[in-house]
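Escalated from tier 1: adenosine-3'-5'-diphosphate holo job.
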Amino acid sequence: MSDSKLYLVYEGLLLPAHVHSEESVRYAREEFQVRDDDVFIVTYPKSGTTWMQEILPIIYSNGDLTPVLTIPNWDRVPWLEQTTAQLTLENKPSPRLITTHMLYHLMPKSFYTSKAKVIYVVRNPKDVLVSSFYYHGIAIFLDNPGTFEEFMQRFLEGNVIFGSWFDHVKSWWALKDNENVLFVSYEEMLQNMKGMVVKISEFLGKPLSDDMIEVIVNQSQFNNMRENKMSNYKLVPNEILDQTKTNVLRKGISGDWKNHFTTAQAEHFDSLYTQRMKGLNFTFYKD
Ligand code: A3P
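Tier 2 regenerated the structure:
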């Protein structure tokens, strides 16, 4: 079971109490005024949030790297539901870039009537699980993950931060045909970053020159982001995020699950996946 002191329970979801409060989630849902030109990065944790927080600001600065080299990712593209949101987002000039891990039905009330855009980043859930397992091992504000088998059980039951991966993806996948929503996968970004940058910039109505595309592709490479103090979470003290054990930007690959799952665990995961995603024509998950 999860350590209750570490978590705020909101609408059945566990949220890290370190950066979330009753007031911050109430503000996000009830009071936050979404603007038509807001752009939301929506993710289930460990799916590529930080990566997208690198890409979008460079698109909006027309290739100028100053924002990503001088402003921490959490201020550059702040989280809607966190305790600092009101301060960082309310008076931010448009267009605002905003991050959220919220499910669709928990978005701000003003979101549903707005024209705000959403980029949903989805990642192979087995790799999400592995990434999250290591993250729990270094984040003092999350409970101990236990063994890999134990953590997998929790993940599959949805007894982890922001709840079930299945519920999260399904809640947003229902919006996939909405013209204001773009689904992007972590795996496609790895395979064809240039193509994804073009797709994202077209979706945002921000066409880019070849030079700008080059700048974005280069800056958002794993090794470059790992060196960027404004993106690698090294500004957070080791007492809170112990990166002497492993980095937040840990491996940055797809398929690391194969180094962690037994055959039986993979079969169990796949069979549950088939049940939970049945009939959805969900095109992103591949082994
Ligand atoms: P791993 O732990 O598998 O390495 P989030 O930002 O949503 O918390 O997700 C973190 C995961 O995204 C980590 O996965 C991290 O290494 C990976 N990631 C971050 N930036 C990346 C990049 N530029 N290229 C590939 N993976 C990246």
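The CA atoms of residues 2 and 237 lie 24 Å apart.
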